[in-house]
Amino acid sequence: MSNNSVVNITNLLKQFPVGGDYFTALSDINLNLENAEFMGLVGPSGSGKTTLLNIIGGLDSPTKGNVNVLGMELGSSSHNERANLRKTKMGFIFQSYNLLPVYTVFENVELPLILNKVETQERNRLVTQAVDWVGLSDKIDSRPAQLSGGECQRTAIARAIVHKPTLILADEPTANLDAENSHHIMNIMVRLNKELDTSFIFATHDEKIMAYLRRIIHLEDGQIVKDEHFDNPKSGKN
Predict the structure, then answer these.
(1) pLDDT digits (tens, 9 = 90+) for 176-213
(2) Do residues 25 and 218 make contact, with C-beta atoms less than 8 angstroms apart?
(3) Domain extent listing, the chain
(4) Is 137 exposed, middle or buried (0-12, 13-18, 19+ CB in 10 A)?
(5) How many CA atoms are closer than 13 Å to the CA of 122, on its beta-carbon side?
(6) Can you tell me the distance from the alpha carbon of 54 to that of 33, in angstroms, rounded to the nearest whole number?
(7) Distance CA 146, CA 208 (A)
(8) What is the DSSP secondary structure assignment for residue 145, as one 8-state letter?
(9) Helix extents (H) in 14-148
(10) What is the pLDDT of residues 120-145, one digit of tens each?
(11) Fold classification of 36-63+78-235 (topology level)
């Protein structure tokens, strides 16, 4: 594992009990993610990409193998240690925006900073900056019901990046968006990756997302079948 490794996985096996037997969701997974990568886990439904994303995020545990994320060995860490790692160094973006409907854009984006006990003045500065990043300054006092789908997802991105995490995990983040909004969302994330050196891992089968990625891990039946690297002009880095 290099000093620049954000994620290092060796010999990962993930099984779920089904009746009196086991279903193998992932097997023989070996993967290393360097700092500031822009990578996607790609494969058909049931290929294991969301399971792998959840394990990297510490939301699920491996059956066997080693999973080291941001210097923490997740298999031997406690629930509280994993929760603290997610809270301080990770951001999550889902296809179902998971915004709190009674909160404004500002209040939704502010939540991670409150959890991290950031002072009020600094919270205001960081929230304003994050909302500006995603182009929603004019909607900062609006509630989710007053926003379009694209604006809700941009709010979710602002919430994910407001504490400037090292790693962002995105599970089908454009699934509920049209092509124009999907490209807008991806351009925002490319900019974050380029300017903040934030590492991104997407789980997707959306070709619009794939066009931006600099690395694609192809999964089939719970195994990595191909690892491709690209010099991608859309990603803003070569």
Answers:
(1) 888 888 888 899 889 889 888 899 999 998 888 899 99
(2) no
(3) 36-63+78-235
(4) exposed
(5) 9
(6) 15
(7) 26
(8) G
(9) 49-56, 79-89, 105-115, 120-133
(10) 999 999 999 999 988 999 999 999 99
(11) Rossmann fold (3.40.50)
